[in-house]
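I am writing to request your help with a piece of structural work I have in hand. The matter concerns a single protein, recorded as an amino acid sequence and a row of backbone structure tokens. Could you please explain, in whatever detail you think fit, how the structure tokens follow from the sequence? Thank you for your consideration; the sequence and its tokens are set out here:
>
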Amino acid sequence: MAAATFSMCGRPGFNCSTVGGMFNVRQASEAYALPGGPANLLYRGLASAVSQVFQVDNKSEFLEQVPHRRHPGILHMKMVKLPQEVSNSARLLLQNSSLRQLEEKVQALTNYLWSRKCPMEDSELQTRATQLEERLRSKVGPPTSEFQDPDKKTELEQKLQQKVLTLLRKTTYHWQPLSYNEDQSLVYLASRLAGEYAALSRVFHEIRKRVPDFAPYSLLDFGSGVGSVTWAAHTAWGETIREYVCVDSSASMNLLAELLLKGGSDSQQMCIPGVYFRQFLPVSPKVKFDLVVSAYSLNELPSRSHRISTVETLWRKTNGFLVLIENGTKEGHHLLMEARDTVLRAKDKVCHDPRPAHVFAPCPHQLPCPRFSWMKPLPCNFIQAYEPLPFSWNKSVKLERFSFLIMSRGSPPDEARWPRIVQEVQRRTRHVHCRLCCSDGSLQHIVITRKYGRDLYRCARTSEWGDRLPVIQSSMEGDPEADGTALEEDTEPPAVEKT
């Protein structure tokens, strides 16, 4: 048996016995079982969980100032509701339109956008065609006497190529760019405005909660659509933002977003000042913005090279935070991890900003995503409840399932290493199951009970999916998440729940 010294509750020199480097809670409690003695400090103090894998981070002594239900790792929001101005404007525009069968069109567009995949690269398509051709040739068998006739040989080759093309069409996702006219823009407004606003509100809330001093002056919205980013940013930071540059290639979308800001009528003034609409990104690399956002837009770019080029441009224009949001599917997660690697590895020929890139959220590390390391990758996604537009076919509450990435400039804060809860917290009698993405790039499934410390237990019990557990990782003795049951498959749109 070896001896070790731990520091708990700011009291150095508390000697505990260890066995093989693992803290023996039972022996320590039996040895110091006097009222008010070290054992009492052990349980009441900021103790460890799961054999010293995690310890509550008490550098700021936050638990002496706030209750556990509001510990600094709490980031989740309750139901999000659209501002009354934009809700009224959206209803007015939809009621005055000539759209028919709006409910069916909204459902069809929602399903299509949720199932939308990345465009296949030419190299991938060529590889798949070669594999199909080889498979078909193997079924035909070795050449026969029929191949001696040139005409017959040409005919058979043509049939083979036709079969390859037919199989490619059946087995390959056919990506095509989306173009929005006036009617399609209104359908997008009805189907996506409230959900996008909810996801953006949740992401902006995290920046405000963790960096309360951040007060952006300018915002760039790439792929602005109906203007959900503008509304969510204005709700988060109010009059602090003086300039909103909204970039969307669709003139119909820009016009609709402007009408929303004007209360549905061209005769009124925009209720949010300083909003400008463009169809192209600003060219000059010297034009920078405190907050740069791209929400549900990366999948609309035609190739990987276009996505990488766009992300690099957006990062060059970022002075504070770059926020990227996509559907909470495998495709959406893949797009964000591609963008994450692009920013972390970006090397401009001309350095316009020497500050390094840092992953602000949701990852507590800058290592490869652990969900990509499995044989069956699963998306890292989160949910936000929101109140949809008040139409008869809508439920009272819906859930937006989304993936997000926040990149920042400069060095990360000390608390950036707190692990993220990446699945719904399972509360059971006298214990809590938490699945965490940790600072060492691993997924951990920990079971927290009261005996590991009252503070840690209550913090875990009041946390939700997407929150950060205010603990520090002291060793790697926990059980890594090794199964494929962490999240549901993304084969269907997000479920709808009632209050």
Q: What stands out?
A: The two ends are 55 Å apart (CA to CA). DSSP finds twelve helices and 20 strands in the chain. Residues 182-210 form the longest helix (29 residues).
